[in-house]
Amino acid sequence: MRAPSLSILALLAACSPAAPVESAPVAIKPGPAAVYYETTLAGAPKLILPLACEPGVTCELQNGIDRDPGPDAQDYRCGRHTYQAHNGVDIRLKDLAAQRAGVAVLAPAAGTVTGIRDSMADISVKAPGAPDVSRQMCGNGVAINHGGGWTSQYCHMALGSILVRPGQVVSAGQPLGRVGLSGNTEYPHLHMTIWKDGVVSDPFAPQGDPQACDPDANPGGLWIRSVGQALGYKRGVALNTGFAGDSLDNLKLEEAQVPPPGPTTPALLAYVRLLNLEGGDEIELTLSGPDGKILTTARQPPLDRAKAQYLVFSGRKTPAGGWPAGTYSARYKVIRGGTDAVAGAFSYSIK
Ligand SMILES: [Zn+2]
Fold this sequence. Notes:
By secondary structure, this protein is mostly beta strands. The protein is 7% helix and 35% strand. It folds into two domains: 1-233, Glucose Permease (Domain IIA) (Distorted Sandwich); 237-350, Sandwich (Immunoglobulin-like), CATH 2.60.40.10. The protein has helices at 6-11, 96-101, 225-231, 250-254; strands at residues 22-23, 59-63, 89-93, 104-106, 111-117, 140-147, 150-157, 169-170, 175-178, 189-196, 199-201, 237-244, 267-277, 282-288, 294-299, 306-317, 326-336, 339-350. The model is unreliable at 1-32 (pLDDT under 50). It binds zinc ion. Zinc ion (ZN) binds at residues 15, 63, 86, 88, 90, 191.
C-alpha cells in the first residue's frame, strides 16, 4: 500500500472546469433514483459528508469518477456526470460568495494525515494572469491514511485554511480546512479522491462491474446511507434560481454579482442554472406577474448533448413607468421523454 504523498497531491486529482464538460447523449438506465445502499465491503471506511454543507440546499454533486478506461467518460450509472479521466467526486457550492463566507472541509472518516499543501493562491484557472497549475492541479489539499489500504485526498482548498499537519490523527467530521479556489478549478468545489491499495475507488460503487450500469446490481457505496441518498444520482437538478435586473451570465452568477431587480432596472429576468442535464432535454422557464398572467416563456430547443451546467433565463425589458409592485413568480421544468423530469418554482417581490 502506498499512502498519498505530496507528489501525488501534485499530480493526481485534476478538476476540469464544469462549463466545458459536454458530451454526446448516451443511453442511461435511470433506475430508482432514491435508493442507496451502504457497501458490505469488509474493512471499508463509512464516509460522512466531507463538507459542512447541505446537499440539495447549499451544495450539489457536480462530477463523479470516470469509470470508462478509454477516451470516453462514463459515471457508475453509465451517465455523463463525469469527464475524461476524472478520478474523484466534485461537490460544488452555489457560488463564490458561499466559498468566501467559508465552508469547512471535513474528514469523512478517521485516519492519519499523511500530507498537506497550503501555499497556492485562490484564483480561477480562467482568471486573467492565473498561474500555471499543471503540476499542482490539486491546489491546497490534505491527504489521509484511513488504514486497511484506504487513503483519501481533498483538493482546491483555501489558502491559509489548512488546520492539520502530517502525522496528526483526525476523527470523522474533524475540520481539515475550508473550500477554496486553488489548483485546477474555476468554480468553488471540493474534489475528493479515495484509493484502496493505491487504486482509485468510486465511493458510490466500490464493488461490482464498473460497466454494469444497473443501479440494482450496485452492491452499495462507501457513504453512510443518509449521505449517499442526499448526494444521490440526480439526472438534472437546479443549483441556482433567482431574479435579475439586467443581463447575467455564468461568470456573474459564480461571482454572486447578479444585478438585483427593481421597479426601474433595465429588465426583469428569472433565471435557473441546472446541473447534469442530458442530451435531448428541453428546458422551459416561465415568468409571471403579480396578477398571475404570464409575461414570458423561454423554451429551449432539445439539448444536443449532456451539459454539466446550463443557465437559462426568461424575462422582459422594463416597461415605461416601471414594474408594478407585487410578487413575480417563475416556474422551470426539464422535459425529458415527454415528462417533467425536473421542476420547481421561485418568486421575488418588487416593492
Ligand atoms: Zn474533481
